[in-house]
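W.,

You were right to be curious about this one. When I first looked at the sequence I had no strong expectations either way, so I just let the prediction run and decided to look at it fresh. Below is the sequence, 330 residues in total, followed by the output.
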Amino acid sequence: MPANLTQQYLKAEAEYRRASTTEDELRCLQTMLREIPKHKGTDKLQSDLKRKISQAKKELGTGKSLAGRGQRQRIARQGAGRIVLVGAPNAGKSQLIAKLTRATPEVAPYPFTTREPQPAMMPWEDVMIQLIDTPPITVQAFDPNILGLLRGADLALLVIDLGDDEGIEGTQEVLERLQQTKTRLATESYLDLSDLGVSYTRTFAVLNKCDLPEFTENIELLDEFCPLDFERFQVSAETGQGLKDLAKAIFMALDVVRVFTKLPGKKEPDYDRPFTISRGGTLLEVAQMIHKDLASNLKNARVWGSQVHDGTFVTGDYVLCDRDVVELHM
């Protein structure tokens, strides 16, 4: 029997994937249990939810939290989305971060330069996107912070060194190590309904060092010994080749719309700082981002955009489009 999960359930499930504290996890799980349709087709899922709720309550009662399960370092979400980079030693993650952002992470030709997760902001047109560099993954070395970051990521970048064949072996170790956890890389982000604890994060494969002569041959070896279903991008973190296409694809994968605001009586909106919401988001969501009181007391708004005549009056449930301009009225 199909589960027929409600929109409220799916929204709570998405928030659960991004939870960074046990309190947040518990709140989302309780919402999921409340919203799940009660029938035979969801019996196992209901049991899993109850087990997870019980576990979360025990952890809160004993003073444990996600920190005790690996999320020791909390990095605040910023920008239009969160992208987490993972890979084997010397894959070129830090150099890629340096090229895509204005940050200056330590870059060196020896492994384990990155010792803890480091955030940086990547500009794309008129928005900023958060990139997080992580320590390399091997069979022997694995920072559990990575799991929480991947769970809450909008997208993961699996960076692969194809300058030599050791990068392929290292990538195999990364995938095998993650397979031992309940946080996996995939072509789409979702929670496994048959096993509530398993989380999948959409991933791009970033094939690095395309400027080196061994690159083409090593792609063939990668396909033979470590085939990947992820969308691929050939780049050089050294020369910058392919990075514009990668940055654009990252923004497109976020599937957000940019919304500009203007004050009543002003001719021009603030084009420097757009708000970003998920595609399909409403005017009320933008109001909530500005201030909760504005959302509570919102009467109507005027919109300038591609789907309406300029200055059309709309209500809070109006679905916004990319680059709409809104004027909110209390």
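Here's what jumped out at me. The first strand starts at residue 82 and ends at 87. And, maybe more interesting for your project: The chain has three domains: 7-67, 70-254, 256-329.

Coffee later to discuss?

I.
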